[in-house]
C-alpha cells in the first residue's frame, strides 16, 4: 500500500512522540515500591503491626507517617519543580525541560538504589520528583504541539497509556523482586528506573523542538517551517505556520504569564487548569494504584496475591487507555468523561458497601467476596482509563492559549502534584478513620465532577490547537467572561 504524504507526516510525528512516551514509563517509581522494601529495617512500626499486633484495625495497620512521607515526598518535589520548569520551558523550549527531567531521573534512581537508610530513600525520591515535575510540565505540551489535530487525542492518550504500562511493569518487577533471596530485591526496583531514564535522555538529544517553541523563543521561522513540514508530511504548511506566528506575536505581548492568566478573558482556562487535575485526584485512582497491594492485604490476601492483583489492575488500566486512544477523536472528550465518571461512581459505592457489610475492623473477606472486590476495582480502573486518566491530561494540554500555555500547564501540573501529595500523605490516616467510608467519600466527588463536565466542559475534538479560543467564545457559560473582557478592551481603546 502506498503511503501518502499526510500519512508519512503522521508516521514522523509518531516517531517523534515515541521518545516522549518513555517519560511515562518512569512512573515505575510511582507504584507501590514501598511495599517490597524491608519493612523491618526502614519501617519497623508498620512491620510490628503486620506481624505482632492483632488488635489494630484492618484499616489502620499501615497508618505510618514515615511510610506516607516516603510516598508523598516525590509529589511535593514535583510540585515545586513544575513551577520552576515553566520559565525554562517557555524561554529555552520543551526539549530543554525534557532533558533536565531525564537527568534528574538518572540521579534519583542511583541514590534510591544505593540507599542504606530512610533519609537516602527520601532524598532519592525527592530528586525523582524533580524529574517528574519537569517531564510532566513539558512532555504533554510537546506532544500536543507536534500532533496533527485529527489524531491529537490518540497521541495524548498514548502518553497516559505509558503511565498504566509503567505501573503494571513496576508491579511485575516488584513481584519478581520479592522472590529474590537476601532481601535486596527492592534495590532493583528503585534502581531499574535508570534504564528508561537513559533512553529518554539520550533520545531527547535527537528530538527537534516544537514549531511553536522555535517561533516563541528563537524566532526561527524557517526552522519551524521545516519541522512542521516534516511532522505533517506535506510541503504546504503556510496556513498553520501563519497561525503559529500570530499566536507567538500575541504571546510576546505577555511579559508575566502567571499574572496575565488571572485576567478575566483567561478565567475559563485558569479554572480548568485547577479543576481538571483536582478532579483527577479525587476520583481516588492514585490511592488505588499506589496502595493496591495494601488494599488487598487489608481484606485478607497474602503478599504475593496482593501483588498479582495489582498487576491485573495495571493490565486492565493499560487496555482501557489503549481503547480510549482508538476512539477519543471519534467519540469526543465529553462522552468518555461522563461515561467513565458514572462507571467509577457505581464501583466505588459497591466496593464500599461490601467492605461495610462483610469486612469490618478485624474480619476477613471470603475468597468469593475478595474476588468480587477485585473485579469491581478492575471495572473502576477501566472506567478511569476510559475517561479521567488520559483525558485529564489531553484536555488541559490542548485548551490553553499559547501566550499562557506554559504558565497554565505549570499550574495544572502543580495542582496535580499538590493533591497527589495530599492524598498520598493522608490516605492511610483517612483509611484508618473513615474505614469503608473512604469509598463513599470518593463517590461523592465523582458525582460532582460528572455534573461539572456535563455543564461546563466544552468539546475540543478535531479543533486546531491554535484556534481553541473558539470554544470559550461559543460556550453558553464561559462566553460571558471572554466576550465581556474583549468588549471592555475595545471600549477603553475607543475612549483613548
UniProtKB/TrEMBL annotation:
One Pfam family cited in the UniProt record for this chain: Sugar_tr
Keyword annotations: Membrane, Signal, Sugar transport, Symport, Transmembrane, Transmembrane helix, Transport
GO cellular component: membrane
Gene3D superfamilies, A to Z: MFS general substrate transporter like domains
Membrane topology according to the record: Multi-pass membrane protein
Annotated compartments: Membrane
Keyword Cell membrane: no
Keyword Transmembrane helix found: yes
GO molecular function: symporter activity
Descriptive protein name: Major facilitator superfamily (MFS) profile domain-containing protein
Top-level taxonomy: Eukaryota, Viridiplantae, Streptophyta, Embryophyta, Tracheophyta
